[in-house]
Design brief:
This protein has 360 residues and is α/β, with parallel strands linked by helices. 66% of the residues lie in helices and 9% in strands. The two termini are 94 Å apart.
């Protein structure tokens, strides 16, 4: 509830209270003598006086607060008007418009998930097939090595004039001017021949429009503007459409990285298989050497028992030696050989376990 409504309610309440009081006083005056009927009147008038004084104080306070709020609203409106005028003036400057478009383009690229200096390059320099130097705002590299050129320098002075226009006819004229400016910029981009300066490149140039409203307003005056751009190999893209395009590019990059990683895993697997083959050969030769060593050991133990221990035990029988010469036991275990894999019906392979008690 505002201050004016509050003040009006208080005044109506005061008038109603006054009318009720006077009615009560008149009724009492009829029932009492004249000298006794004046006392309630004085009391009622004093109460009414205090009530009106309080209402006046509340009204003055509410009026002061309302005046202060209106002053604050006026100052805010003036500051907003100044800031809006400064923004419009700044957007009319070509380099400010270009910088704003570059910032919008940068945000779209960051949201798309592309990596700087890996998937895209900002403002690279190049030379087209006619020998002229060009410098687009962005060059995006696709997964197959091709590049997509993006330009963000879009004129929208006509759009600002159309928004500020109050007359419908003037607005329609300014919208037509905006469409003509955008069409002329499409012709300028087509003449720069960006794809010939960055090879291999896609055979089109993306014209980044920083706001969907800019393109929608231009299409109101010239519905065939998109088809005209396609005919000139220029694709008009707003933040939403460019975001979808760049997300597709980022997805293709991720798939390319996954495929490259899969090739690396396959190469590592091949190397590991070759090394396992070499290690298996070493283990086979080592097992053969261990089997030969155990056979030689058993032969040596047998010869030792037959030739040496027979003579040494004579010392034990004559009581010359203090302790008996120990007999070394032969080694009966055999070396476990590597067994070939057994193929299964489902294509898998298993390895059989030995059952002859050989050591592993």
């Amino acid at each position: 509830m505002d201050a004016a409504s509050l003040l009006l309610g208080l005044l109506l309440g005061a008038l109603l209270a006054t009318a009720v009081t006077l009615g009560v006083v008149a009724l009492l005056a009829r029932r009492r003598p004249a000298e006794a009927g004046l006392e309630p009147v004085h009391e009622s008038l004093d109460h009414l006086h205090r009530l009106l004084a309080g209402i006046e104080r509340d009204r003055a306070t509410a009026h002061g607060e309302l005046r202060e709020q209106m002053g604050t609203v006026g100052q805010t409106s003036a500051m907003l008007r100044q800031e809006t005028a400064a923004l419009v003036t700044a957007l009319r400057t070509p380099h400010v418009r270009g910088r704003w478009g570059e910032v919008q383009l940068r945000r779209v690229v960051e949201v798309a998930g592309l990596l700087e200096h890996c998937d895209f390059v900002e403002q690279p320099s190049g030379t087209n097939d006619s020998g002229a130097g060009v410098r687009p705002d962005l060059v995006v590299t696709l997964a197959d090595g091709r590049q997509v050129v993006v330009d963000a320098k879009v004129p929208f002075t006509g759009y600002i004039d159309a928004v500020q226009a109050t007359d419908q006819a003037v607005r329609a004229e300014r919208v037509a001017d905006h469409a003509r400016q955008l069409r002329a910029h499409v012709d300028a981009l087509a003449a720069r021949r960006y794809p010939t300066a960055f090879r291999p490149a896609a055979p089109f140039t993306v014209l980044f429009v920083p706001s969907d409203g800019f393109l929608t307003t231009a299409l109101e005056a010239e519905p065939g503007l998109l088809e005209y751009g396609f005919g000139k190999d220029v694709v008009l893209a707003t933040p939403s459409t460019l975001l979808a395009l760049l997300r597709t590019v980022a997805y293709s990059w991720r798939q390319e990285r996954l495929a490259r990683d899969a090739d690396q895993v396959l190469e590592v697997g091949r190397r590991l298989h070759a090394r396992l083959t070499t290690l298996s050969g070493h283990l086979t030769r080592l097992g053969s050497a261990l089997g030969t060593a155990m056979a030689r050991y058993n032969d040596t133990v047998g010869s030792y028992e037959r030739s040496v221990l027979a003579a040494a035990r004579r010392f034990d029988e004559l009581g010359v030696a203090e302790t008996e010469v120990p007999t070394p036991p032969p080694i009966e275990a055999t070396v476990r050989a590597l067994r070939p894999p057994v193929p299964q019906e489902d294509g898998a392979t298993t390895f059989t376990e030995p059952r002859d008690g050989t050591i592993g």
